[in-house]
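User: My collaborator and I are trying to settle a disagreement about how two of our proteins should look. Neither of us wants to argue from intuition anymore, so we agreed to look at predicted structures for both before our next call. Could you fold the first one, then the second, and keep them clearly separated?

Assistant: That sounds like a sensible way to settle it. I'll keep them separate. The first protein:
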Amino acid sequence: MLRHLREFSALAPVLSQTPEWLLEATPAELPQGPIDFALLDCSGTDTDPFRLLDALQSRLAPQRWLVMCEAPDPAFTSYAAGLGASGCLPVPASPEQTRAAVALVRAGGQCFPRRAFAMPVPSPIGPGRSTARG
């Protein structure tokens, strides 16, 4: 994936770090200047993904960013979108899906799984505040 990111960013440097780096890096280690695009892979780490989202937004504030995570739930996806994420890609994703999501987000589009924003299941409690049927 890193090779493909470098192809997309032929004119800009590509910095590759672990997700935990967002929490551990000193201010001097952070990139200087605006960050055009960030890809945050929250899968395969024991670190709280919500903390990683907060750290990415507060420490790097990228203009566009894509989050990869294992089975994103609606709360996580909504939180990421609320912080400014342009997309959330469930892992595992094929290289083609990942490249397409990166290209879409870098072009200014959004990429969120439909199931993460699905309508909630209707409540079994009826209009009279009862679960009685019939």
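The second protein, kept apart from the first:
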Amino acid sequence: MSPSVRLQEMIRVIRSARTQGEERGVIQRECAAIRAQFRQADNGGRSHNLAKLLYVHMLGYPAHFGQMECVRLIASPRYNEKRVGYLGAMMLLDENQDASLLITNSIKNDLAHSSQYVQSLALCTLACMGSAEMCRDLAPEIDRLLRASSSYIKKKATLCAVHIVRKVPELGELFTPAARALLAEKNHGVLHGAVILITELCERNAQTLVQFREAVPELVHIMRGLVTSGYSPEHTVAGISDPFLQVRILRLLRILGRNNDTASDAMNDLLAQVATNTDSSKTAGSAVLYETVLTVMDIKSESGLRVSQTQPYWSNAPSQLQGPKHVLRSPIVKLSLALVSAINIRSMMKELLLFLSTCPPELKSHAASGIFNAAERYSPSQRWHIDTILHVLITAGADVRDETVPNLIQLITNASQLHCYTVHKLYRALVADISQQPLVQVACWCIGEYGDSLLQGDCEETEPIQVTEDDILDALETVLQSHMSSPATRGFALTATMKLSTRITENVDRIRSIVSIYGSCMDVELQQRAVEYNALFKKRLMETNLLAVGGRRVCDLLDLLSDPEEPSLPGGPLGPGGAPLGPAGLMSGSAGGDLLYLLGGLELAPTPTPATGKHSNKMMCTLELAQI
């Protein structure tokens, strides 16, 4: 293929290639020819070669060697070459490359060009790939063009100002006066850009937000004109006059009216008019109504307006969640969650839970969070609240927030009358599926706390179920050994197993063996817990030995207090000769030696024959009680 072929011919040859290797060979030969012509000083086909290189770049092949050629073409006085150069800069350059700094001066010169089309090229390039340094250098030029006489230039300068505000928010104050003046324009493109610019300024500066609240009457006037205007072939979409501009104005009104009574009162009548006159049978009308409802719910609107404008969508919005239009599901979810109230909480939540089981993965987290917030705010009863959260954990447990587990545990703890019901329901869910980690964590915690209710099996609010100690331990051991369990989940299960040792009687040895396994676990947290729990087991064994010393139980404390005639002995019981009786003298035979051994290894020195009166017996009981 000749290096001088036209762009159309090169495209035809590339598309006719039968294999990827053949296509790669054609592109390599053409790129070599283009690179050779770029080195020529008097090359008259620069724009032609760069256009072919841009097509190669669109196919995914490297074209970085054309970056400097873009800089040369931008500096060219010819419009055709300048146009291709700016196009190449937007495709091959970005703000992180040093070559982008070389075109700053050329863009500044073109912004002052006499031709509006050259100015347009410079504005588009700056808005597309302008870096923060370029924005700071060229911001005064953009502010000047915002006051130009041409609507064509104003529209592009406004969008360029939006890019500058996003890159360098502190430059927003420079564009505030010009943005307010643009609201008086009649051109829809300029108005659309002005509303976007004001929205960006208000979102990034609270002081600017206060200033633009004075422009609410102007925005209301513009919006009312769009609602009541007749058919315009240039702007009407499906019978709605410029729905794109209407949506942008409604979003800006929502920002300006939030937490402000004066601004909210100024737009109440308009919102009622928009909701009444907009046809919802078309997608464009539905988009406008969606923004209207969100605005009504977000500002300080009249209570009657909020009810009258949202009530028609209480039953319609949730039903659309199961529709085939996946692209509309995200806004419908937001609208459905915004419509939830204490009146319709049960019906709306039923639809939302049904949607949660079939919704795309990218929407599950948002839907679950919204359901949690609505249930916490409007729950009709504690049991309904617990059932709703458990349903979400069973359906989308992997997509819930981290604070869901402690919040649910606190809710269950406060609902003391539902402990039996909750532990039975969580046990069934745990046995059925252990893949949802938050659900497993809550279930393990409840089993550890209320496992005795599970063993009794006399819960009146659920179906009777026979659960043995072995069944509970099998479930917890399955969680501990499962590869799906996270270290945090294993910690919940291990703690629950240890708690059960105080609530069951026949499987204490099995619990001790389960806990001891994790004393050498690789996870430091689990290993620390297991070691501490093993220490508790040893201490409990020591207490058992103390209670069994001498083959008798601890004496009744009342016996110590039953004889008021006994004199007080501040120095303790006395031995022979009136001397205080030592610790070893309180014991007799081997039983005393065993007890002293358990108390910490006191030496058994030879002592006189111990006293055998009532004083020594009572001190023996007192010492045993003190060690329990």
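Some points you might bring to the call about the second protein. The two ends are 99 Å apart (CA to CA). Residues 547-628 have pLDDT under 50 and may be disordered.
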